[in-house]
C-alpha cells in the first residue's frame, strides 16, 4: 500500500508517533511519504540547520520526508497561532498537493483543525480517502486553554470539524472521552477506532539506577513524582504545585517537572 502521511509535526520535533508509525509501515513493506513542516515546535522558532523555504525532501529510514514552509509561532497570541496553523494548511493544500506522490490513502495527524481542511482538499483532488488521527479536539482544546473565548468563533470551528469528520473514511481517537465527544457530534461509532498512545521506541526502556546522575539532579533518596512533557495552560501544572504545598510536612516527597512550554517561566515563579 502507498501511504501519504500529513502532519504538521515530525522529528526532530518531540512528536514521535508519526515517525514510529512511518517506520513501522515501511518495515511492513508499505511505501510512505510524509508531508510536514520545517521544525519549529515547541519553541516557535525554526530549528538550527533548517530554514523556511519552498520545499525540501530527504529519505529517513526508508521514508520520503517532504518539508513545506509555515510561519512559526508558539506564543499566547491568538492571531499568531492562527497564522501558524493556517500557513501550514495552506502550504499543504498547495505545495504539499503538488509534491505528493500517488497514494492509496491519506493519513492525517489531526492536531489542529486547519490541517483537516487541507486533507479534504488533497483527498478531493487526488481522489483518495483520508483517515484522521485525532490527537487534539477542536474547539474543545482551545476553549480549555482560554486562547479563544468567542462563542461564535468556537461554533464556527465546531462546524468546520463536523465537516471534516463527516468526510473522513475513518477516525482514530486516543481516549474514550474523545469517542464520546465525536459520537455526540453525530459521528457514527462504526467509523471510529480507539487506539491508545504508545511510548516512543527505546525512550522509556528500563535502565540501571545511576546514583551519580541521581545525586547531580537532586533525585537521590527522595520519593520523586515526575511530570515530563509540555508545560502549557491545558496541562494546569500550577495545581500540582498547589498540591505539593500541602505535602510540605513530608520532605522526602518532591515533584519534578521536565519539559518546556508557555507556562514554564510562570511555573518557576510559582514554585
Question: What do these coordinates show?
Answer:
There is one protein chain. The protein is an alpha/beta fold. It is about 35% helix and about 20% strand. It has helices at about 15-25, 80-100, 115-125, 140-145, 150-165, 175-185, 210-215, 240-245, 265-270; strands at about 1-5, 30-35, 55-60, 65-70, 105-110, 130-135, 170-175, 190-195, 225-230, 255-260. The strands form two sheets. The protein has an eight-stranded mixed sheet, with helices on both faces. It has a two-stranded parallel sheet with strand order 9-10. The termini are far apart. The relative contact order is 0.10. The model has no long low-confidence stretch (mean pLDDT about 90).
What keywords describe this structure?
single chain, 271 residues, alpha/beta, eight-stranded mixed sheet, two-stranded parallel ribbon, 9 helices, globular
